[in-house]
Amino acid sequence: MCGRYTLTTPLQGVQQVFDFPERMNLAPRTNIAPTQEVPAVRLGPDGGRHLVLLRWGLIPAWAKDRSIASRLINARSETVAEKPSFRGAFAKRRCLVPADGYYEWQTTKAGKQPFRITRADGGVFAMAGLWEAWRDPESGAAVETCCLLTTQANAALAAIHHRMPVILDQAQFDPWLDPRSDGAGLLALLGPARPELLTFYAVSRRVNRVANQEPGLIDPVTPAEVEGPRQGQLF
Question: Which of 127, 149, 216, 228 has a CA positioned 20 to 30 A from the CA of residue 4?
Fold first, then answer.
């Protein structure tokens, strides 16, 4: 799964990868968590890519209240086309969620050790997402939400966690966002990232608390005792 990630890349760097016109203020964030607003890229009415803010935790249009969002932060790519909570968004409302790292926890003798997974070149990348528009039946307020797609971890990351977010190459952005793409073509995009694309390193357990947001959360640390991969090992 993916339950925490980072986006510290300045706006200009994100624009270069995702090609949108917005000049939104993107403050560096080292501990992005569910229920928070997150930047996402989707197609607008003009057919171009646009940067928007969505709340992380999907609320399907048919939901009676927003409490379901905390259970729908991720969608499994293997069943996304079938599950009632996701199939409508998968068919019509897909997005890209920019990130420059995500966290996963490995069980060790000393407790759960967090790792930050990044591109090997340190660049920004796109996690495949879905979005929904929901209207609060009490207030009438419109709420736009999103979730991330996950897939089986590749060989380099399986010792940390058996799942990983779907990370799309730039060549896959257009087919993922294109409303004309069919289900079979979309599902073909949802495999694990190439092992050589990513690297990882241990970080402080301070990342466990959502309230902790300081820049030092992404600094590497030496774990006391880790069962499995060492820092940067890509098998």
Answer: 228
Average pLDDT, the chain: 93
d(CA 144, CA 138): 16
Give the amino acid at 146: C
Three-state DSSP class for residue 111: strand
Cα(22)–Cα(113) distance, integer angstroms? 37
Q: Tell me if 114 sits within 8 A of 203, measured CB to CB.
A: yes
Q: Which residues face 43 on adjacent strands?
A: 49
Sequence-separated (6 or more) residues with CB below 8 Å from residue 85 = 58, 60, 68, 72, 75
Tell me the two tokens of residue 235. Answer: 């098998």
**Got the DSSP string for 39-83?**
EEEEE-TTSSEEEEEEEES---TT-SSGGGGGG-SEEETTTTTT-
The tokens of 35 are what?
Answer: 């229920």
- Residue numbers annotated as active site: 2, 104
pLDDT tens digits, residue range 47-75?
999 999 999 999 999 999 999 999 999 99
The CATH class given to the 5-218 domain equals alpha beta
Residue type, 113: Q
Whole-angstrom Cα Rg for the chain: 17
Model pTM score: 0.94
